[in-house]
């Protein structure tokens, strides 16, 4: 008799009943969660990932995760590693490769050495069905949505349609019609969109909303550098507030072509590109659909804005985890572009006798300050001690937990200078600056808990390099496949964690 076993975290479901967890700060917190469940009968396996730490999904606590697994039919269920490790990689029917289908909260895939996987045998390649793929399952009356199909065989692998033309029908017929791979919506209602080719067929649910009442871009503002491109979506809403994406073909656009150019993007939205000579200018992108208008302010070009000069009178204190730390304002006339009387903040620390992760922070007061609207890049000047510490930041925004942002990992340097000179200025977002050494992921989590930081971070284990200079690095809050919306740094917070020594910081922000 075959048997198997799996290591896991807490039991979520026993005998088909959700476990009732006692109150606990870690269990009750809404976070990304991963779970595996087994329905009665032993012929199915439930692999469930719940996104969290994002503006579109806060996540679940253990109690709610247990109830979800029971509702999905699990007879037994267990929690696996969550947070930034929560991820599902899957292959859609008819596809040749697999990809990430959820939105990891780190903004990209986290290196995780283990997981649970299901692998099927190779199929015959003979067409058995069609996977119907509308770009959206909601549409405004009179507007359009792209539709496509993928053929699959008995093992859900790819299968060609064998030269058969794909036919389309909507039920009820009043929903609309398909022509040339485009569905045009008719009257409001809910139904299915069916496709057939030879012996294969498939369907997908589709809803036509009420008449267009309001139009809005998916971003409130956009900041781009000359020559760079950013993706922006447009959505229409009916009088009840239900929304659907609007295809570029359905919108009339107006904008200053000396500042930006706009084209249809590969994701069904708009690709907005800053004109080559548009540094420090702005424009308004106006979209009109069925007489309803939406406007998007766009800034092209960034300017340097100083964040910190660490001059006397600023309220800085020290914080340490498994060690001691102190801060002091010292002379630092050698910073590029600084005046002769420039000062810096020196962080002193002692990790003697510590074998696990230790950290020292310079904490700015009196409290967190929000980054200015339009922030896109961060840069630092550091006079370090060359002891392989990390130069990194922690960002949080839109209700997310802390997201790591690494400038250099690890860094052996006497000086890390951004690519541009900046005048000294005031700290627009004070946080923690500090030195840390790493002794493993579990110790890293302990150090962050001791310092009041929430999200564990797995820094790169790349070998230390020689002294070097690094240019300002773009801040990319959400990146990679299925990464979700980017961090809105205009409402974000940044914690700077750096090697010991003098430091100066700046941000590049949008004009206007």
Structural class: mainly beta
Q: Estimate the global geometry from the Cα principal axes.
A: globular
List how many beta strands DSSP finds: 37
Low-confidence stretches: 411-504
Protein architecture, described:
This protein has 512 residues and is mostly beta strands. The protein has a 5-stranded antiparallel β-sheet. Strands 8-10-13-12 form a 4-stranded antiparallel β-sheet, with no helix packed on it. A hairpin with a 2-residue loop joins β14 and β15. The termini are far apart. About 18% of the residues have low confidence.
What's the SSE blueprint?
Layout: E1 11-14, E2 17-18, H1 25-28, E3 33-39, E4 46-50, H2 62-71, E5 74-80, E6 89-90, E7 99-100, E8 129-134, E9 138-139, E10 144-152, E11 167-171, E12 176-179, E13 182-185, E14 189-197, E15 200-208, E16 214-217, E17 222-224, E18 229-232, E19 234-237, E20 243-245, E21 252-254, E22 260-264, E23 270-274, E24 281-289, E25 292-300, E26 302-308, E27 316-321, E28 324-331, E29 343-350, E30 358-364, E31 377-382, E32 389-396, E33 403-411, E34 432-437, H3 441-451, E35 473-474, E36 493-497, E37 503-510
Parallel strand pairs: 9-15, 17-25
Antiparallel strand pairs: 1-2, 1-5, 3-4, 3-5, 6-7, 8-10, 10-13, 11-14, 12-13, 14-15, 16-19, 18-23, 19-20, 21-24, 22-23, 24-25, 26-37, 27-30, 28-29, 30-34, 31-35, 31-37, 32-33, 32-36
Brief sketch in words of this structure:
The chain has helices spanning 25-28, 62-71, 441-451, and strands at 11-14, 17-18, 33-39, 46-50, 74-80, 89-90, 99-100, 129-134, 138-139, 144-152, 167-171, 176-179, 182-185, 189-197, 200-208, 214-217, 222-224, 229-232, 234-237, 243-245, 252-254, 260-264, 270-274, 281-289, 292-300, 302-308, 316-321, 324-331, 343-350, 358-364, 377-382, 389-396, 403-411, 432-437, 473-474, 493-497, 503-510. It is mainly β and 512 residues long. It is globular.
